[in-house]
Amino acid sequence: MNSMIRAIAMVLTVFLGGCTFFGTGGYQQWETEPVVRVRLVHTLTSIEGVSGKEWSVQTRSGSTARTIPESAPLTMTATTGGVAVSWRDPERRRTEQIVGDTIILQGSDIEDTLLLRGVPYGVGWWWEGTDDRAY
Questions:
Q1: Containing H/E element for 54?
Q2: Which of 133, 82, 134 is nearest to 111 (CA)?
C-alpha cells in the first residue's frame, strides 16, 4: 500500500514538477509564470465557487468582458460547444452571465484565489472523492 502511494506521489511530482519547480533545486525556472491550462472537471456539467477578490472574466476573443465582485458566488456550467459563467452581483442585485466557447478568469491580484466547491478527484479509483479547492 505504501509503495502504491509513493508511486502515485512520484508520478504527480514528475507531472506537476515539470510545470513548476521539478529538478530546479527549489528556484523558479521562468522570469514570468507560464500559462497553465488545467482540465479540472470532466465528469460534471457544472461546478460552483466563490471569488476571492475581484476577478475579470472574458471570452477568448475578448469581445465580452465583465468583472466578478469580491466574494461573489459563481457557477460554471457546460453548454453546447462552450461554457457559461454566472454570478450574483450584490450591487446591481441581479445575476450576471458570460457565455463563450472558452472563458478566461483572471484574479485582480497575483495572490488571489478562486474557491471551487466539490471538485472531484481520483474518479474511478478507490481514493475517489470531492473536495473544495482554492486555485
A1: none
A2: 134
